[in-house]
Amino acid sequence: MTDDRRHQRVSVSVTVNGFEHELDVEPRITLADSLRSDLQLTGTHLGCEQGACGACTVLVDDLPVRSCLMFMFQVDGRNVTTIEGLASENELHELQRSFLQSRALQCGFCTPGLIVGIVGLDRKLTKEEVRDYVGGHICRCTGYDSILKAAEEYLSGRQMLVEEPPDES
Amino acid sequence: MPLMALRLAAPETIVDLGGLQGMTYVRVADDGVTRIGANTTQTQILRSHEISRAAPLVIEAVRLIAHEGIRNRSTVGGSLAHADPAAEWPALAITLEAEILVYGPRGERTIPAAHFFEGPFMTALQPGELVTEIGIPCTSTRHGHSVVEVTQRAGDFALAGAMASLALYERQIERANIAFFGLAGKPFRPEGLEAALIGKSRVEALDIVGSLLPGADAYTDDVHASSEFKAHLARVVARRAIGTAMDQSIKGNYDG
């Protein structure tokens, strides 16, 4: 029985950054680990491996998720977007450009998770809500101001940044 | 998952419930009960107009759960079954007197929230049973509500938390549902507190609430906070939650 478990494999069909993959993975491998080791997409980083830091954030069916808290088999039949999937052949993604211009990264460890997460925001937000979202990612280097600036500039450029609604009381 | 990553849990078998059909829904029934399917995610709950009308305390509490990336995957059924004593859903369930629908080898049964949570990460679920739905009675237009958490960082589990759902009549408490979480092995509604608050005005309620809470012995001493500090935090969150809920009800901000 122990031997069977050690050789257990499950097949996963997943589209990552627009490319379809058929993989045979151990059931216990996380999405984060499989992206990094089976698909060599090492842009997704492992910080805490508990879901607290956000460095591992990827998009699954366009929603930001903590890939360290998902199993690879759970993305069977789904679409995954990682940091590697954002830039086109010749150009950086708008948000990547904003990050560069605002100097919103230093060591770069938290950066892929932040960028993918912000790209995955699917609604209009106030500055306070952007701050709330970014607060779910741990950055030790920048002090966050430059990150907020880059995020606000990007969202504003897409008409996704809105003013606080007037207080209704 | 985090428990496994921290090597605190090592289950022999894991079954992913994500593929189960028909467990993601929000329905307000004719009897005024809002029924939420167990696989409904926190994000889906936050975006539900029905819930924001029928049980706004749910929205306020779910906003405090972790961070957006987590809320996109976290489900209400998962949170209830996991029964973390510092989590929001167990406290919500007992504050709002919800009913938890459970399905297992011997069929379906309904467990009132007050009997569902037995201790830290322990519930009334028997082997083979899973949570399928939570039913939340609607709150009336005279209700004011509030959730207050004390955390080390935004999104953390609560060191101390209080939830209040109050009905007022002429600026006095007519009915109070008040639960505390993060402080002990499971969320609780302190004995005698709610009854003692009936008929009290805001000033009177805030004045007496401290003396109606359990002493330091009732709280778990841990690496984050001592029992004495938790007893202090309990009074702080109680006053803030009751005060805010009463203000809201008085101001008529709840527009049902």
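The beta strands of chain A are 10-16, 19-25, 57-60, 63-66, 79-81.
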